[in-house]
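User: quick one, sequence for these tokens?
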């Protein structure tokens, strides 16, 4: 809704049709979208993981999923399969990954290197609970990285079952911190201390 009131948007924000931050650049209001880059940067900086060449499954096709799909493709993922309850939304999201994007299905989860839950399933779940889940846990296992963008609770039902099945688990706070850090960098021209931000967010 804010985009028509801006002077410019970045190519990423234009592709997504959504902004999550606005900055002044030489008298112009510029809209940015740092969500997807925040995830890729948190995987790189916090987890030592490069997305390049990875087979990825993104569960969900809402605002967060679209940002992630776009960023994974930009970071060199070899395959980005979007699995979503509503097929038409999955098609739109998959289109944001260009040649490596496609509408996926549940069976794509098992062979994936990286599985990102970008649905809201699991949000507000009881601590220690193993439901509700956005995917059949039988499709998760060792050798996979499972990221849950849901950060309330931090240990979601998905991450609980993924860890039990031997997958490497990454919670949603890294993306939250890094997308904010990218915005702070742009606003202030200085690099914030991401480790301090992460400690504060986790405390
Ligand atoms: N970690 C971070 O920095 C960060 C940043 C942004 C968002 N998030 C989190 O990411 C999640 C999604 O946010 P969003 O803004 O993308 O939300 P959104 O635009 O409302 O999209 C929600 C997505 O979840 C799916 N969904 C909802 N309920 C479902 C159910 N019961 N079964 C299967 N699929 C279901 C929807 O599928 P349909 O298309 O079929 O409706 C849609 O794909 C939220 O939990 C949010 O807190 C985290």
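Assistant:
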């Amino acid at each position: 809704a804010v985009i028509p009131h801006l002077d410019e948007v970045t190519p990423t924000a234009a592709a997504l049709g959504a902004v999550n931050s606005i900055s002044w650049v030489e008298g112009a209001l510029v809209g940015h979208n740092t969500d997807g880059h925040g995830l890729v940067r948190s995987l790189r900086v916090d987890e030592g993981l490069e997305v390049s060449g990875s087979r990825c499954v993104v569960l969900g096709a809402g605002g967060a999923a679209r940002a992630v799909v776009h960023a994974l493709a930009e970071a060199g993922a070899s395959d980005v399969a979007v699995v979503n309850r509503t097929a038409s939304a999955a098609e739109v999201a998959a289109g944001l990954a260009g040649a490596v994007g496609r509408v996926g299905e549940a069976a794509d989860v098992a062979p994936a290197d990286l599985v990102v839950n970008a649905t809201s399933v699991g949000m507000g779940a009881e601590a220690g609970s193993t439901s509700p889940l956005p995917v059949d846990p039988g499709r998760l296992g060792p050798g996979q990285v499972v990221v849950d963008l849901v950060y309330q609770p931090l240990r979601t039902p998905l991450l609980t079952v993924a860890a039990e099945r031997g997958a490497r688990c990454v919670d949603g706070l890294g993306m939250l911190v890094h997308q904010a850090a990218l915005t702070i960098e742009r606003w202030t021209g200085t690099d914030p201390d991401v480790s301090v931000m992460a400690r504060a967010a986790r405390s």
